[in-house]
Amino acid sequence: MVTSILKSRFGLTRRAAVLGLGAAFAFGAPSAPALAQETLKVGLVAALSGQSAKSGEAITRGLEVAIDEINAAGGVLGKKIELIRRDDESNPAKGLLAARELVQREKVVAFFGGIDTPVSLAIVPFANQAKVPFIGVWAAGTAITRNGAAENYVFRVSAVDELVDEAMIDYAVKTYKTTKPGLMLINNPWGESNEKGLKAAAAASKLTIAGAEKFDNNDVDMVPQLTRLKEAGADTIFLVANVQPSAQVVKSLDRMGWAVPVVSHWGPAGGRFTELGGPSAEKVHLVQTYSFSGKLSKKGETVLAALKTKYPQVTTLADVTPAVGIANAYDGMHLLALAIAKAGSTDGPAVRQAFYEIGTYEGLIKTYSKPFSPSNQDALGKGDYMFTHFKGAEIVPVN
């Protein structure tokens, strides 16, 4: 039918029309494919399997609840939003491949990222080159948004290592009278980011670092590293790692019989930390941006009710752990929808500019006011963090 229309309107033969269409698809000639679709597609590249699968599940739930609200209100630009997910398996190469597929094949108008800083860092150059907004809702590596690009398409509703490190230092000094912390860091770019940030924050607070020890994801015995920190006089451990290695740090401390306070980045929130780390995992205090425990705002009550309705398996507050993934993704999706609506288009550069023009949005984590600017593409700051700990499978505020 398409070829007959082309022939009747432009005098093309069937063969020429088919060849023309083939060339158009081969070179991606249509400049606005997303607008021609029945829905506006948004993507997610996250850990949907493995030890950090709970993080991907939480992000998915936050996005889907927000999308349901947006679609119920008529969608964006007169179209419903559709979520398309890809599992990065916490692997940077697989994450980059997934991002390319979402942008080039699925024609997403924007896409979200998951828990792993190395995966997000692998994706950042592609997002900027493709001019497609990439919204981080968990990975905290400072360089993800502060990437030096002349035209930066990476936005974030999440923690930022540099600011988290300052918060961890402040909290340890206030709570444990810390004077000589030791660092236990995952041996990857996320660990490197926090080593730099923690050392700078410690120096600013006139603290002496007892030492900085590294370990890998699959290590099962951290006793040697911890022993060196103990002998160096460490009075607090700052921990930066995701679920599996963090659990091994806790178990190694138990084997040593060393009851040192542990203040952690939020990596342990992404999976079965108490199950893997044992009872002492509950003693670890970790950063979060949100908790469904305690008295909730009206927005919090609405989102929690929506989660229980949409996901029958949500029956207790432990079932909405990690709340940080849900909350960051929920607010991130609404901010993206506001940017697309303000742009009046799904064109990447137009949406990027519209992010800077968002005014006020009453979100789940906070009320945002001008959340993004060309000099700051992180919507959350140091004042938006809280410290929590596991209580069984639930993450609750420390106080």
Automatic annotation (TrEMBL):
Domain of life: Bacteria
GO terms classed as biological process: amino acid transport
Annotated ranges, domain Leucine-binding protein: 39-367
Signal peptide (residue range): 1-36
Keyword annotations: Amino-acid transport, Signal, Transport
Record's keyword annotation contains Secreted: no
Family membership noted in the UniProt record: Belongs to the leucine-binding protein family.
PANTHER family from the UniProt entry: LEUCINE-SPECIFIC-BINDING PROTEIN, PERIPLASMIC BINDING PROTEIN OF ABC TRANSPORTER FOR NATURAL AMINO ACIDS
Name used for this protein in its record: Amino acid/amide ABC transporter substrate-binding protein (HAAT family)
Native species: Aquabacter spiritensis
